């Protein structure tokens, strides 16, 4: 099994390369940026690519972009992407990319669990789809309606907001302080993914979310 590894951190790159070699993989190239990844794949025609998401030259999602492009042009190339953090958009984009070979998305901390990591590499190389369990849980939560993230009290506050009541009126109805109401509303905005914005009224957007979820 010929592998091209892409990771900009020298110590991590050498560590993963050594680990793969120890378990019988032939690491034909280990590179540190996305352009070099593309060149190495063209030069060595590997069976599997293992790459980090964030890499030079952009230090953003260069590794992921390279992986998606490789899957599009080489449907038989298996790809395993490693990420420092849970980034659901990146995971979804990789899994939706064209290609019939195995594909995987793992958090980097899985590398320290040697047997779990090697098993994932083997499964991806063998044609399976492997997604980090933590990422799966986050994806499942995202698919549920946002209102399910709210506590019972937050839902009560949002219901009163939907009736057009002010913070003072909500506090009176629930027999709590206005400060408590303000705290609950902040929690509602956060859980409904409504960041501060000059162009949108978060209170209105929160009410609209409530109405779509209860109508």
From TrEMBL:
InterPro entries: CheY-like_superfamily (IPR011006), NreC/VraR/RcsB-like_REC (IPR058245), Sig_transdc_resp-reg_C-effctor (IPR016032), Sig_transdc_resp-reg_receiver (IPR001789), Tscrpt_reg_LuxR_C (IPR000792), WalR-like (IPR039420). This is DNA-binding response regulator. Residues 143-213 form the HTH luxR-type domain. Residues 2-123 form the Response regulatory domain. GO terms for biological process: phosphorelay signal transduction system; regulation of DNA-templated transcription. It comes from Virgisporangium aliadipatigenens. GO terms for molecular function: DNA binding. Keywords: DNA-binding, Phosphoprotein, Transcription, Transcription regulation. Pfam families: GerE, Response_reg.
